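Appendix B, record 7
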Amino acid sequence: MDDARFAREVWQVLEPLHAVTYFAEESHEAARAVGLRGFWMGYFALRAAPLGAVTPGVVEAAFYNFHPAMVRRALPDAWDFAAPEAVLRARAESATAALRRVAPSAREAAGPVVPLLERVVAAADGAGRPLFAANRGVPASDDPVGALWQAATALREHRGDGHVALLTAEGLDGCEVHVLFAAGENVPANVLRDNRGWSEDDWRSGLARLTVRGILGEDGALTAEGQALRTRIEARTDELAVRPYRALAPHEAARLVELLGPVADEVYDSGVIPVPNPMGLPARR
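Structure tokens (predicted):
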């Protein structure tokens, strides 16, 4: 198994399955029904619910790339409207319903895929990975599609936790990472800036800091040093993310991607995930 290639392939098939919880109307309606106020309170509460009724500071640290004021507009108030246990139920039920709707093949794929994913989840190291560890502790759903969604969610948070550790190790803050990504991927600045709570002044300051470090040029484009930094971070992210998949035999890992590919394609084709998006997902695999 080519670890680097597999890490990218499995991210591209798992991330869209997880992402329905952010963009599907089922999830928005579930957040409203449980008492949460507005899209962003729903986002922060649904994603943080496995951690329990945590304070804003915990979410700022774990989610990493949001302006602290954006987090604090949602938390801790969300827990006054709905307990984490209720939010978790709403999250699971709505994500399952959304995945069934936009990806009908998920039901058939779940049977052979879920046991493979659950082996990977069990094999993963939770040290230093708070979002992964919290999601691994969520009881498995009796619904195969729900179990598929939860396993995909735990593993995407595993990758994300490792990525955050690498970004912070490189001395990048939550705004700078978006400036860097926008420069490297030609994503419009407002897609990242506005969806993560950073102001235009924050963005300009982040750009200036990266320029001083030699990561960006005076024109705002990546320098050779900046490109090398991005390549290094992404390669190391893949290396860390792929480790638990070694619990699978090579043919099982290949089968996992083969089975989930059509499910991910259905999610992409449904249009439920906007492009461009702040998650960095492409228009297609």
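Remarks on this record: The CA atoms of residues 189 and 271 lie 22 Å apart. The chain has a mean pLDDT of 96.
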